[in-house]
Specification:
Length: 279
C-alpha cells in the first residue's frame, strides 16, 4: 500500500458528500467534455451532474508558477505520494516542500463514470499496468513499450504536438485507506472506495533527465449505483517552463479535452469486452 502525507486532515465521515448519479445512460462513447476551472468543480451541480450522467466528462487543466488554495491542496496531497520507502533515494526524484513556490506545476483533473460495478473488485495494479489494458485504453498517438515489470508500463506521448513530447514510465500501486481518506478533500469530500497511484519512475539512476521532476497521478474510484464515479488527478512538478509553453498549455485545453474523450471511450470499450466475457 502507498504511504500518505500527514499535512492535511482527512475528511471525516460526517463531512463526506453523498453521491447519487443515474448511470443507466452511460454508453461507451464520451460525447461531451466540460472544461472547468479548478474552483468550479461540483459533481452535484445540475449542469455537471447531467454531463456525467449522459456519459460525458469534466476536465480541468492548468500550468502555473503560483498555486491557489485549491491547486495547493491537490499538490500537497499528491506530489509526495510514493510506493518507494524513500523516493529521493530509490527513484531519484526530489521531495516537494509544501508551500514552496519555486516550482511550476502542470495540473490535470478528469471526472467521468464507468458503468461497470464489478470493476472495483477486478482492478489491481498489475491489471492496470498490463499491456492488454494499456494497449486498448491509451491514445492512438501513444507508443507503448514492452513491459519490464508486472506493475510498470512505459510509453511515449506528445505533450504539445510538434513542440514537446516525452517518454514516461509509470509504476502502479494501490493506495492505502488513510491516503484515500485524505484525498477525499481534493474531490469535494466525496468518499473513495479504491484508488491507484501511478508514479513516474526511471529505468536507472543514469536515465536522461528532463524538465519533469516528478509526475504523480491518482485514479480514485467511488462506488455509485450501477458503476463507479472516477476522478483522475495528475500533478506534474517541473524544473522550469518557458513562458511560451505556459501560454500554449492554457490554449491546449481543447486538445486535452479531445484526448480525454478518446481515453475514456477506449477504456469503456475495453472494460465492456472484459466484463461481457465474465457475465
Amino acid at each position: 500500500m502507498t504511504s500518505t502525507s500527514n499535512d492535511c486532515s482527512p475528511v471525516s465521515p460526517d463531512e463526506e458528500q453523498s453521491i447519487t448519479l443515474n448511470i443507466s445512460r452511460v454508453a461507451d462513447e464520451c460525447p461531451d467534455i466540460k472544461c472547468l476551472g479548478f474552483d468550479d468543480y461540483d459533481v452535484m451541480r445540475s449542469e455537471q451532474k447531467e454531463i456525467l450522467e449522459q456519459g460525458g466528462a469534466l476536465f480541468s487543466l492548468d500550468c502555473t508558477h503560483k498555486l491557489d488554495a485549491t491547486q495547493a491542496l491537490m499538490v500537497n496531497e499528491i506530489v509526495n505520494l510514493s510506493s518507494f520507502d524513500d523516493e529521493a533515494r530509490d527513484n531519484h526524484v526530489p521531495k516537494y516542500v509544501h508551500g514552496e513556490d519555486s516550482y511550476p506545476f502542470m495540473l490535470v483533473k478528469v471526472v467521468y463514470l464507468l458503468p461497470f460495478p464489478d470493476f472495483i473488485d477486478w482492478i489491481t495494479p498489475e491489471k492496470l499496468a498490463s499491456t492488454s489494458y494499456q494497449s486498448k485504453c491509451q491514445l492512438s498517438s501513444h507508443i507503448l513499450w514492452e513491459q519490464d515489470r508486472a506493475d510498470t508500463f512505459r510509453f511515449t506521448k506528445p505533450i504539445i504536438p510538434l513542440v514537446f513530447k516525452m517518454t514516461v514510465q509509470f509504476r502502479v500501486s494501490e493506495l492505502a485507506r488513510d491516503t484515500l481518506d485524505a484525498l477525499a478533500a481534493c474531490i469535494g469530500g466525496i468518499s473513495i472506495s479504491k484508488g491507484m497511484l501511478l508514479e513516474r519512475t526511471k529505468r536507472s539512476s543514469h536515465s536522461k533527465s528532463d524538465r519533469c521532476l516528478k509526475v504523480k497521478s491518482v485514479l480514485l474510484y467511488t462506488e455509485v449505483n450501477g458503476g463507479l464515479l472516477c476522478h483522475h488527478l495528475t500533478v506534474i512538478m517541473l524544473a522550469s517552463v518557458p513562458k511560451f509553453v505556459t501560454t500554449v498549455v492554457k490554449q491546449y485545453k481543447s486538445l486535452g479535452s479531445n484526448e480525454t474523450s478518446e481515453t475514456i471511450s477506449n477504456t469503456r470499450k475495453y472494460l465492456r469486452s472484459v466484463f461481457s466475457k465474465t457475465s
